[in-house]
Design a protein that fits this description.
239 residues; alpha/beta; eight-stranded mixed sheet; binds 2-acetamido-2-deoxy-beta-D-glucopyranose; carboxylic ester hydrolase activity; disulfide bond; hydrolase; signal; AB_hydrolase_fold
């Protein structure tokens, strides 16, 4: 087992830590550990300047816990991408490819399992690029995930995505006229996964709903408390 995987078993949230602390490039899972609920792969936001330690979930632990508590038989991990990298373009590009590798290798190991990919902020950009492919000016290109995975990837959940654009069927939240800093020019490439995607973006989040209004970007930090339960309810409707 590579990375750290958590699962809910008989009401107890267990933590299985790995013997290998270097981030793995794939995720292969013994068949007796395949999720019977969902397998959630969560990509956190960029590490802040003063952040210490190596926490691949950070504030997204709250959503992981809710998924594990409310969807029995679920497993989850934080994607070990370079969330501490200075170069966020490299982090998004390499992270999107890493996420694709995690999804495809996991489903090769566990073909009957359902996967949800979840991302916050920088992790939202890489999650959407991993699914739809890149179509933002300035972001390094990644090809879309093969649409044959649409039946297994039942949730694509993002909070505060810098590639956000208005008027998409998968948009959730209060942003109706703003744009992400790196708007997605070809949302049509997301179409095979459209019924799985929920992109949360609120007014006041200057990263996904630029430029109005200016309130110190408070909305960018409010998604977990406001929407985690809605996310879990959505995932349940997709199973
Ligand atoms: C997607 O996967 C299918 C089934 O494995 C394959 O036949 C097809 O060529 C793939 N498409 C692309 C664009 O790679």
């Amino acid at each position: 087992m590579l990375g750290t995987i958590r699962f809910h078993f008989l009401g107890i949230v267990a933590v299985v830590s790995s013997l290998v602390f270097h981030p793995a490039h794939r995720q292969n899972v013994p068949s007796d550990q395949c999720a019977t609920g969902v397998h959630a792969i969560i990509s956190r936001g960029q590490a802040g300047d003063g952040e210490t330690g190596w926490d691949p979930l950070n504030v997204m632990v709250s959503l992981q816990n809710l998924i594990l508590e409310q969807i029995p038989g679920s497993t989850s991990l934080g994607l070990p991408y370079q969330y501490g990298a200075q170069d966020k373009f490299v982090a998004v590009h390499d992270g999107a490819q890493l996420l694709q590798n995690y999804v495809t290798s996991y489903l090769a190991s566990c073909p009957e399992s359902k996967v949800v990919v979840v991302g916050y902020s920088l992790g939202a950009c890489l999650t959407m690029d991993a699914i739809c492919g890149t179509s933002s000016v300035g972001l390094n290109p990644v090809a879309a995930l093969n649409s044959t995975y649409a039946s297994s990837v039942v949730g694509v959940i993002v909070y505060g995505d810098e590639t956000f654009i208005p008027e998409q069927s998968w948009n959730v939240g209060t942003c109706e006229i703003g744009l992400g800093i790196f708007p997605r020019l070809d949302p049509g490439s997301c179409e095979p996964f459209a019924s799985s995607i929920q992109s949360y973006c609120d007014i006041g989040d200057n990263q996904c709903c630029s430029p109005l209004p200016l309130d110190n970007n408070a909305a960018h930090h409010a998604y977990m408390a406001k929407y985690n339960q809605g996310v879990v309810d959505f995932i349940r409707t997709r199973l």
